[in-house]
């Protein structure tokens, strides 16, 4: 696994100017999107924490896919070892539905290609023009995505095991 250097795509700059993250590849026309950018910027990422961002930064810096690094002393208490243990996604036995976008600068293709074969993927939904937030905020997400999510949750009909809806 390799975690892409955030400098390559100026990801840190995009994080500082989060308007760009919403605008690029969300599936919206620029004029429709522009009217909602300030709302998105105020509420997203509302469902995460500073610790999540720190964990992401640790992963980028260490180039490892592992648990949160609390430092040697706290790691010993939590993990019984000096460094955090590495995640082993191949040991996960739960079914996984994957939603991914072709313009996602937060999940690079190398990492996704490494991860997917290790998981029990039952649904793989790919939208080439969506970015990381497109599945939530794109104007067409209700038509393109939400019905698939509901079918996955409710066990609704699917033509194939792995679905690309367009």
TrEMBL record:
Per the record, where are the segments of Basic and acidic residues compositional bias? 1-13
Q: Where are the transmembrane segments?
A: none
Q: Where is this region: Disordered?
A: 1-34
* InterPro entries xref list: AB_hydrolase_fold (IPR029058)
**In its UniProt entry, what is this protein called?**
Lipase
Lineage runs: Eukaryota, Metazoa, Spiralia, Lophotrochozoa, Mollusca
């Amino acid at each position: 696994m390799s975690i892409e250097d955030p400098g390559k795509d100026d990801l840190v700059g995009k994080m500082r100017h989060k308007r760009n993250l919403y605008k690029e590849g969300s599936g919206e026309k620029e004029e429709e999107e522009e009217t909602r950018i300030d709302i998105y910027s105020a509420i997203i990422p509302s469902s995460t924490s500073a610790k999540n961002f720190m964990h992401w930064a640790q992963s980028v810096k260490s180039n490892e896919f592992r648990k949160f690094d609390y430092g040697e002393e706290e790691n010993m208490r939590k993990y019984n070892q000096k460094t955090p243990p590495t995640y082993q996604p191949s040991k996960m036995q739960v079914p996984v539905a994957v939603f991914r976008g072709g313009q996602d600068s937060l999940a690079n293709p190398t990492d996704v290609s490494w991860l997917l074969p290790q998981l029990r993927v039952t649904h793989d939904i790919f939208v080439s023009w969506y970015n990381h937030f497109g599945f939530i905020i794109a104007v067409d997400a209700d038509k393109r995505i939400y019905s698939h999510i509901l079918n996955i949750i409710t066990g609704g009909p699917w033509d194939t095991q792995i679905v690309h809806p367009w």
